[in-house]
Amino acid sequence: MEREYHIPVLLNESVDGLNVDKGGDYVDVTFGGGGHSREILSRLRDGCLYAFDQDEDAAANVIDDPRFVFTRHNFKYLRNFLRYYGVEKVDGILADLGVSSHDFDEADRGFSFRFDADLDMRMNRNSGLSAAEVVNTYPEEQLRMIFQEYGEINNAGRVARQLVSYRQGKSVRTIADFKDALAGCVPKAKESKYLAQVFQALRIETNNELEVLREFLEQSAELLKPGGRLVVITYHSLEDRLVKNFMKTGNCEGIQEKDFFGNVVSPFELITRKVIVPDQEEIERNPRARSAKLRIAEKK
What we know:
- The chain has 13 helices and 9 strands.
- It has helices spanning 2-5, 11-18, 35-43, 78-84, 101-105, 131-137, 140-149, 156-167, 175-181, 191-206, 209-223, 237-249, 280-285, and strands at residues 25-28, 48-52, 68-71, 90-96, 224-234, 257-258, 264-265, 268-270, 293-299.
């Protein structure tokens, strides 16, 4: 069943990166189809795995194992829930920041331009603004910033202008409305890639993904034991930059603090000096893995 829901990316590389202690406590903050969690559990004996996912659909994949604890909440609440469970420190934390294949393939979630459905895109459909509300209420300049920064498209200003103009006559409620509003902005030779970037940008904003990532990274430094591992798989240059900066310097801005002798002070030691990416065999088996980047750091 898990395989139909989502194929875990860089499975062995990421779980190997955790350096699992059979009696340790671990966290998978992006449970999804449970692929990474099952692999972690296979390497535990009497430890415990705490998994998080705010997506209601992920709850159907919960693993029946006394060593497994599932929490259906956003991982920005990681510290609060671990304290609730009586856990102060853990031996490793894994985050796969990609959207589950299941969510892309479920038309009514509104993540994919391949279908027509409500323009929703919320990981948790019970909270926050939907993508449609973002498109219909944000001012032009804010929309331009979203598509330029998060989607990295060259004509973000034109996209923002057209959306504002379109919604004056008709609300953007569905994926079809959204694509109609973009008419003329989409380069015909690169339509799929362009739309993927536009939808990605809107999804990042709708779920406040970068701010949530910042909060998670800051908590991870506090929650890991000395020698504990932080393992993160990213799919977007902005995510990867935040993770890279944090692992190198202990802050998301990448500001280096130095001791009296000029040595960089960081709570982490890099395990991967060079980013790990999927090999060609994995990309052929799972094309959605092609933009994945894996970084691993150890708490000092």
